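Table S5 (text form). Sequence records supplied for joint modeling of the two-component complex.
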Amino acid sequence: MNERALQFGPDRRLIGILSLPDDLDATRPAVLIPNTGVEHRVGPNRLHIQLSRAFARLGLVSLRLDLSGMGDSGLPADGARGDPVVDLQAAMERLERMKLARRFAVVGLCSGGNDAHRLARADPRVVAAAFVDHYQYPTPRALAIQLAQKLTESRRALNFLRRKWNELCRPRSEYDPELVSYFEQPPREVFLDDVRAFVERGVALFFLYTGENQNAYNYAGQLYDVCPALRDYPLQELHYVPRCDHTFTHERMRGQLIEALQHWLATKVLATQAGRAADHPEQDSDADLAFVQALQRSRTQHERVSAELSAPRCRPASP
Amino acid sequence: MEPLYFGPRRRLFGLRSEAQGEPRRTAIVVCHSWGVEYMRSYRALYLLAQQLAMRGFDTLRFDYSGTGDSADGERGITLAQWIEDIRCAARELQELSGADHVCLLGLRLGALLGMHAVAEGLRAQTVALWDAPDSGNEWIRELQELDRVHYARKNRYLPRELRLESLPGEMLGVPWPRALDEAVSGLSRRAPAGRATVLRLRSADVPPAVPEGEEIRLPDPGHWNDVTWLTRPWIPVNSQRTIVSELTERLA
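The corresponding structure-token record, covering 571 residues in total, follows.
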């Protein structure tokens, strides 16, 4: 495998796994993959590993990392919680010092999507951002679909009533795993401003929503109704995959996500970034670079993930 | 803490927590569980390893072949390979630390694997079995039941046409090959006579089993059969404290 563990950040307390392609090209963006929920850097059912190996086959360097206090990464020395944006910027600086990339893509699922969004907002080095099941804003059509589902399926109406009854009557323990919240989405106006800024900066955008949270996102193109300006932006893709759950439990689902991301990276990022990144970073004798080159010489054949080969292509949502 | 690749063609990934202060004669190899149990206990075992290192134990956590950050896909893994991985990890840690003794500390399936490795000839002075099921068969049945409840629970909130089904050859989304299923079914936590000292670490919600070896009761629950804990962080702080203190007292 062309993989290497990296320790970086203050006191080298952050850890990530770097995946390298057979042919390094530092003009291409490197892909950062932060944690999904509280799962460590391998991701749900090793999804992040499959992603990073698929990105390497596209010729992209990637780093899947543990943010402060997650997986094998420590907390700041002062006992503070740590800031995912600061951690991701530390990763970017490390990859820049290793002369592996100067531009970055970030791929985040769920809470990782929130981290990816905040990083893309804060740092102009981010030229592409993929968000999977992150912010979901209701629309009149989504609310109508939700209501129709509840009215036509008595089972779901009963579940709704039962949940409300429990919320009213059952005392909650001090720590209830059902109540863990991983992030708060920004108000709709802030989100729209952010998207506008991403479009102005030319950041390539990828959104994918699964069918698991029917109460929040339940039809193809819902995000276009929230943010009409996005529809005509050529560097974006929006997917709705209803027969897929939030953690991509089945191999088939993971294959769909990987294929959709590969397609977006190839057509909306690599094809368009190539012209911009003419300024090749100069090579130096940095020990890290020597290590990377040594790794390349001893590269082995990457394993192929059978699911990726057999999975059907996931279609962009129709407007 | 130092990440490392080791074993044949350096295909295994591990994290060594180096002993702080005066190193002890015993080094500890942590044997993870598998699948959803591996994921939800990962941070807890990181913290445990750090605490053990602070008490002078060199500690190595590692991923079996086809799991976590180690090489290979999930489809081709075998029990024999996993046992070889444990041997490899024990050898690596002894070489790195210079320790005379090895303790295998296994959680759930990791406890059964550790015990099997000792039965197959691995020299370990102590085996600490944390919430070891009675057998591999019982562990598989528990995960299959969780798998069933997990999908039933998800489907409660989904329209009929979007309902999900459990797939044969997977447990909670992780491929579980038939050959591995058959081999793991036959595992037992019974200790091979006289091979190693056995410590049984039992979480508060785990029922007592046939007495074998010394039992250490842990204050926190494991929640192993509770579907609401499948994707939640499990950090049994009090149990960790007890384990560190008991191992510090018992191991050289």
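Note: Chain B has six helices and ten strands.
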